[in-house]
């Protein structure tokens, strides 16, 4: 069931979908793309697929990636707060 995401996860999911769809429009001979979101208890899985084949026409090359091209990622719904390493406490060196 869809639910609110933390700001960091929301931004990451948005950027992944944005980049995947940009790549589809620039590098695939596709008629349609599909974005799927699956909400699990502790993570969100998102998949972007398209119905075309990957190409490299923008640079004059060729690429055959098969019939099902997709990007899939799994993001935690409740990410842990990243920790910043701290410098060690200075030692007291008394002669």
Overview of the structural elements:
The chain has 95 residues and is an alpha+beta fold. The protein has one domain (7-76). 22% of the residues lie in helices and 24% in strands. It contains 1 helix and 3 strands, in the order αβββ. The protein is elongated and about 40 Å long. The protein starts with 6 loop residues before the first helix and ends in a 19-residue tail after the last strand.
Please sum up the structure shown.
The protein has 95 residues and is of the alpha+beta class.
Q: In sequence order, what are the helices and strands, one letter per element?
A: HEEE
The helix count comes to 1
Q: Residue ranges: pLDDT <50 for 5 or more in a row?
A: none
> What is the terminal separation in angstroms?
65 Å
Strand order, sheet with most strands: 1-2-3
Shape: elongated
Helical content stands at: 10-25%
Mean pLDDT: 76
Give the total of beta strands. Answer: 3
**What is the assembly state of the chains in this entry?**
single chain
Strand content: 15-25%
Question: Strand pairing plus helix content: what structural class?
Answer: alpha+beta
């Amino acid at each position: 069931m869809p639910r609110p995401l933390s700001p960091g996860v929301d931004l990451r999911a948005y950027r992944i979908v944005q980049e995947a769809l940009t790549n589809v429009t620039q590098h695939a001979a596709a008629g349609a793309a599909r974005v799927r979101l699956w909400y699990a208890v502790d993570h969100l899985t998102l998949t972007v697929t398209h119905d075309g084949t990957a190409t490299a026409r923008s640079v004059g090359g060729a690429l055959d990636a098969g019939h099902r091209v997709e990007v899939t990622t799994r993001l935690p719904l409740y990410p842990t707060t990243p920790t910043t390493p701290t410098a060690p406490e200075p030692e007291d060196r008394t002669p």
